[in-house]
Write the structure tokens for this entry.
Amino acid sequence: MSQAAVKPDTRQFRDALGSFTTGVTIVTTVDAEGRDIGLTANSFNSVSLDPPMVLWSLAKTSLSLAAFVHNPHFAVHILAADQRAISDLFAKRGADKFAGTTLARGEGGVPLLEGCSARFQCRTAFRYEGGDHEIFVGEVMRFDHFDKPPLVFHSGKYGLVVKQAASPAPVPVDEAAAESSFSRDFLGYLLGAAYSQLFKPIRDEFSRRGLSENEYYLLSILGVDEDLPLDEIGTLMSFAGHTLGEELIAGLAGRGLLVRGDGRLSLTDSGRRAMIELFAVAKSAESDAESELDYSESQLLKQLLRRVIRSTSRGLPPLLRKR
């Protein structure tokens, strides 16, 4: 078992997050009356490695919502492969979920389950309304990584993670798609349509904050890597059809979102918080987009898109071919 208080070693934190595929989690807290609250959730996702932040969502109709809104602390447990019974128990309404369960206590007195694959103790950084769900973004205060195979769930059934050395099996051809017109079967059309649907909630959110797409794109680059010189930032901006100019930099600096110095741009605390919140919206949109894909399909899709990017980036600067 490895245990770490945050700020953790980034590699250890990444390894702990790696326990989750499209797996099963139990999220726990304590309500206003001091009662232990817990439920099964599969909406868990990472938001940021530095600072370490994660998110999960809960239906607004859930009877447990008030407890998580009231208590700023919660714990996310990534269940191990032998914890199917616990998953079933915590998925039921009205059950005495903690009866006979060995518990420890974590940040804010929240109950901690034993025997998990990994466990994250969090403080709610902020909440975001995402349709019929409430999205909780938590700053990770402590985490445990037990290096146990995780429990996974797909198509109504539990499963196990099996490591494979071979390449993924080819995706079966959709006969209806193969017979479709050129315009609908054209890769550019499919990518554009997918991008439009995936990006809509993100665009709605940054527009609500008074940001332009150009401003959002610059902030998102800095949110990923603040150690890039201005010329490389400009190259990344131009690759996506945007322009890095003095007016853009001055406008964001004037709003207190970034600072300039030594030929580089850096996010302020306000800018970093804004980007973490926007990343949370983006992660939620990604989860919705992947809702009909299992883990292997999702990873295969991303792998294929990276190959498309590499194959079409000949002649571009090395910086872009690596991304």
